[in-house]
Amino acid sequence: MQAQILILLICSIVFGLQMTTMLVLLVIPALYSVFDDFNLLRKH
Q1: Domain tally for the chain?
Q2: pTM given for the model
Q3: How much is the CA Rg of the chain, to the nearest whole Å?
Q4: For every one of its 44 residues, what pLDDT tens digit does the chain have, with 9 covering 90 and above?
Q5: 29: burial class by Cβ within 10 Å (0-12, 13-18, 19+)?
Q6: Domain containing residue 26
Q7: How far apart (Å, rounded) are the C-alpha atoms in residues 36 and 41?
């Protein structure tokens, strides 16, 4: 493989891992908080 292809491949993998980490650590807990504020979550 050429270096240009490897650079693009590695950049896309790193970007994907960063976005997944941000989604799991920030966005999903924020959504749970918003849903809880509007009483949209079921409470048993």
Answers
A1: 1
A2: 0.66
A3: 18
A4: 699 999 999 999 999 999 999 999 999 999 999 999 998 887 76
A5: exposed
A6: 1-44
A7: 6
